[in-house]
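Give me the fold.
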Amino acid sequence: MTTWQPNQPTSGYYPGPQDPQQPYYAGGQKYGAQPGYPPQSAYPTQPGYPSQPPNYPSPPPPYEGLNAPQPPINPGFAPPPPGFTSPNSQGMYGSSYADEPFTSNADNFEFSDKTIRHGFIRKVYTILMCQLSVTTAFIALFTFHEPTQKFLARNPGIFYAALICTFVVLIIMSCCSSVRRKSPMNLIFLFIFTLAESIVLGAAAATYQRTEVLMAAGICAAVCLGLSIFAFQTKWDFTMMGGVLIVALIVLLIFGLVAMFFPGKTITMIYASLGALLFCVYLIYDTQMMIGGGKYSISPEEYVFAALNLYLDIINIFLYILTIIGLNRD
């Protein structure tokens, strides 16, 4: 039997067992015979080529414990850098929840809603102050300026035209949401309404004495200020009284129509007292609708309509107080 030794020069062929039933040696290792295996054909040698493959080192065992490789959280994205454990509420990697406080979406929404509501309140009261300033100027002009009083007495059509304009503009702004929401159309209509209402109030105040007008204005200012403070800090929710207030207003209107056919000091006093009380409650209701926090609230887009509601409440309180004071004079 012929054996082949490594690095042994040959005549161009690697020897192999001619008998498949006999074992043979190659590379210092013994290979058993395989029954029925055909003899191998000789193939040329390559000078300098190693007789056996190099001894490659075996791969290291897999890491275990904390150093074990972790599968990627999102395939296709780079793993988080060291020190970043899990994604935060915005879906980005950062420090753990215990290390860094975060604000939930509900807190963000609440903060945003409060910011918008505070800006809405400032805008409403700014518009309301402008309306009351214009109305006060007209009342003072019609009350303390005699030529204006005489001019109005000679031209009563101005009063009736202003009264009709007031009702028309009020109906348009109440029924058409696009008019009271779209700027500057809403401000134009509000200015027209304020101007017409100021003429009506000035003409009505001109029929009273100056001291009575000043007294009614002072009482109205004190009452409105106190009711506004009460509406801001009270825990009672007046926004649920909308249906009751509408029914009370309808009853008051019917009572006023009946009182026209039965004129008298007593029935007029009762009507004015009930009207002043009702619009005091309306002032609290509209104020809480504006500031929000109750069961119902007005949209921040309705700043013109909110200012209009407060303005109507205040001028109605002023007119009813002026009526009560005028009835007590000699």
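Residues 105-144 form the longest helix (40 residues).
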